[in-house]
Amino acid sequence: MSPLISVIVPCYNQAIYLDECLQSVWDQTYTNWQCIIVNDGSTDHTEETAKKWIEKDSRFLYVYKKNGGLSSARNAGLEKASGDYIQFLDSDDTIHPEKFTKSLSFGTEYPLMVSQFTIYKNQTYYPGYNCVKQDFLTFEGIVFGWDLKFSIPIHCSLISRNLLDGFLFDTSLTSCEDWLMWIYVMKDHPKVLLLDEPLAHYRKEDSNNSMSSDLHKILHQRIKILPILKKLYGDDLHDRLSYHIIEVRSSQFIQMRNEFNKVTGGKVISGYLAFKKYYYKLFQKK
């Protein structure tokens, strides 16, 4: 019997994109799926859009909840899901019509299947910001490479429900929550199938209010996740990752400083150091 796929679509005030997202699910050539639309307290016409699809096809299900954030909405979808596999799909993203068919077309059943992706911006598709490689898809690869060498949009994956047993997204996080999911999924070293074609499409619109545009917030969230990792996986992983982040970021800073010196001929830095030396001498006399 063909496995059932549960698609979880959290939506908060993105009704403008929701039709396109749900259309990409409805267009799947693989038909044994259910799609759970989670309205996270939207104030736009998300509910009207969702109910239109429920009337169109009984495989669409609708859940309304008080606004609690993306992680809370995904958790509500997980509680409702009854599929053998989970497909996360944010309401502004889409998937290729053959994503499910191609993922499940191999003789061996894989607990985790991951595809390449494109960036969808201003009605144009671009190559993903990184090419997903097989060596990324290991526990060590996810822990030590995430956001430093690569990141993978969550809807690239099709995940066995068994891998997600006991997992809930951390509602205290506003980013990196998907990183924790990947770490959890990879902790027992499951067999992974990499589909080397873009079957997921990630929408990236210009927004000064987005989390990805605020590097300070991103750094804050990465620091915030460290004690969570320590609690889940122990001191060794926490310490190794902390030192790894410090080493990588320090190396990046040194490289940037060297490149800056090449461009300026060191004049700006030497001027700054001379001023700093003068500043300290001035106040040491007082």
Automatic annotation (TrEMBL):
Q: Which CDD domains match?
A: Glyco_tranf_GTA_type
Segments forming domain Glycosyltransferase 2-like: 6-164
InterPro entries per the UniProt record, alphabetical: Glyco_trans_2-like, Nucleotide-diphossugar_trans
Q: Molecular function terms in GO for this entry?
A: hexosyltransferase activity
Domain of life from the UniProt record: Bacteria
The name under which this protein is listed is Glycosyltransferase involved in cell wall biosynthesis
Species name = Chryseobacterium rhizosphaerae
